[in-house]
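Section: Multi-chain targets

For targets with more than one molecule, the full set of components is provided together so that the structure can be written out for the assembly as a whole rather than chain by chain. Components appear in the order listed by the source. The example entry contains two components.
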Amino acid sequence: MTNDLFFDEFIAKDFIRQASIQSHRIGFYNLPDQDTTRILDFAKSKDVELIAVIGIGGSSLGAEAIYNFLNSKNHYARKLIFFDSTDPISIQNKINLIKKDRTIFLIISKSGTTVESISILKYLDQLFNFNRENLIVITDKNSPLEKFGETRNLEIFHIPDNVGGRYSVLTAVGLLPLALVGVNINSLLQGAKNLKNSFFSGNYDQIIQKAIYYVKYYNIYSLNCLFSYSESLRGFNSWYVQLWGESLGKRQLSSALKIGFTPIGLIGPTDQHSFLQLIMEGRTDKTVTVIKIKDFENNLTVPENRFKNLESLDMLNNIKFADLINMQCDSTIKALESVNLPLDVIELESISEESIGGLIYYYELLTALVAMQLNINAYDQPGVELGKKILKNKMSKN
Amino acid sequence: MTNDLFFDEFIAKDFIRQASIQSHRIGFYNLPDQDTTRILDFAKSKDVELIAVIGIGGSSLGAEAIYNFLNSKNHYARKLIFFDSTDPISIQNKINLIKKDRTIFLIISKSGTTVESISILKYLDQLFNFNRENLIVITDKNSPLEKFGETRNLEIFHIPDNVGGRYSVLTAVGLLPLALVGVNINSLLQGAKNLKNSFFSGNYDQIIQKAIYYVKYYNIYSLNCLFSYSESLRGFNSWYVQLWGESLGKRQLSSALKIGFTPIGLIGPTDQHSFLQLIMEGRTDKTVTVIKIKDFENNLTVPENRFKNLESLDMLNNIKFADLINMQCDSTIKALESVNLPLDVIELESISEESIGGLIYYYELLTALVAMQLNINAYDQPGVELGKKILKNKMSKN
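Its structure, encoded as tokens over all components, is:
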């Protein structure tokens, strides 16, 4: 994975030291080094066609991002779906995909009391009689959900205490459903580990440069667009939006000032025909990070097909679509350079476990570094509690 | 469709007069009044299983929004897919869905020279030997694509000159694929017409209040979040992002100043676990519009299912999911009210053609009114031309 920056900033070595100190307390840093034996053994023991995750937010977005990315190319025989909304029509449509004896369910909730997930669990329990064979629990140690799982004698996987939901994709939360599908989770972790090692050995200081730049120009550029040039990265964009928005949109610890960066997920070339106009000619309040895939490993090619009256587009003939999308990407980069927005490019080698593992770790690190400089807690989400409280009041009056 | 506003603004009747004057020049205003006979007759004459649109941006987002919304509930026998990217893997995956003799293709391009769409057309022509039976053209009068269509003796539908791509969903661009699927396009237009008539007769001045408010507080609230409480509105969010971002992100006609509002599409309850934290505790630079569906026409209910150790969530028992998602929506509204953000609620009656037709017209009107006050041209997109020019240079050197 390469990452070329088109803006200059000085580098501060002590960022690495700060991150290193924080890594003793914050769990995501060390997830690449975990032992995956239990997860792999468990996945091997299961013969299923469909893996259905009951989870929302941090309990679903990470696995969905990685699955969508890899499945676009690999077409796994086992499919992964997510019950991630209380929308009744969406629930019903997903139930229609389930073959009772060929499906394993994973209920994932860090707190163990997520309203959306438990309400769906209750409904599905009626249909599928959950038991040790078809339901797995992933939750915090000692959560009410764990205790419920114990009364049903279910297999339970824990989320480490010091790993927040939106940083949990490289725990059992993401690894177990992905391993069940057939994703090589050790390669995924290896990708993250490569990034981690590069960063901590001082060989990947682009992350630090970006973090410093974002914070320094916080008052000018408060929106951060991620322009991903592949449909396969749509899920990754959503994961990024949660990570960035929920971690950095927060009151400053010292001042209680409301601050935050706004994440925007875009897909090229589709959003060249949508959001790009706003970036080019709207307010200059946005940074742009372009993600491109170096090798799509795909030879689909525009044929030597001459269309009468469309000769002006004969220049498309014999171009591989993989080259065309990357030419479009490069053209967008050039156009963005011309309007002087802070711009950087991340290039992934290919659609592989290593690539996405590295990308995930890159963004977790970047988030952590920005939060440290802004003096905010990147690992809580106090702003969503009020809505939950209001809902519980409404329900108890029901 | 009701729309309750939680912020106050004065009302200016002459907005209606301005819009009325503009409607002689700008085509979208009068689309609800069109004659759909040719489209309906044509759709009736076709017996297919799959409708495949080759189109990007304004040529796909509108039909996709309406199809996703209605199909979530109606499960049409005929499916609609979109070739809307040059991503080779995405193209290949869509080709795998096609049954050769049961599919009709629509090539949609306003200019008739859209690189993405023509390159895909060339590729698919090799596989499916396009002819009058399996390919329809929708384009501007006298475009190169129309002339190509004539040489192949294809059926051609026109996009009115005075309707821009992102305002074209209620022309053949949206109506033809939707009619082929089985959507009642007259009801769709009726929904738009109801909104239009209410507005021009002075009975729907919330749109004016909102437009005035947005422009007045432009320097404070430059981001506009659309928080849609139904998975079925995901496509609508993308349509909104294009409409709002591409229409309003622009240089001011008088000053050449770069201005613009940033659209954000969110889905509840999923994004309560993601973006909501940023709205609640991040910068106060956002307005929020919540869309809720009054009647999901669905009785899925959390059963009387007591889970040991999860008794605290027994309050979920016997609640319909349709009520639960709307309680979550109302709780989010209450929480947002407490932080004093400009907030308004749009309530759709149900998942129906009338509802989505009205909603589309609502947003087109709102966009037009905001643009008039900002003194910008809502109907062009000059900012995307540079990237296109760079791409053509790259290709001709290839």
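Chain B is about 45% helix and 15% strand.
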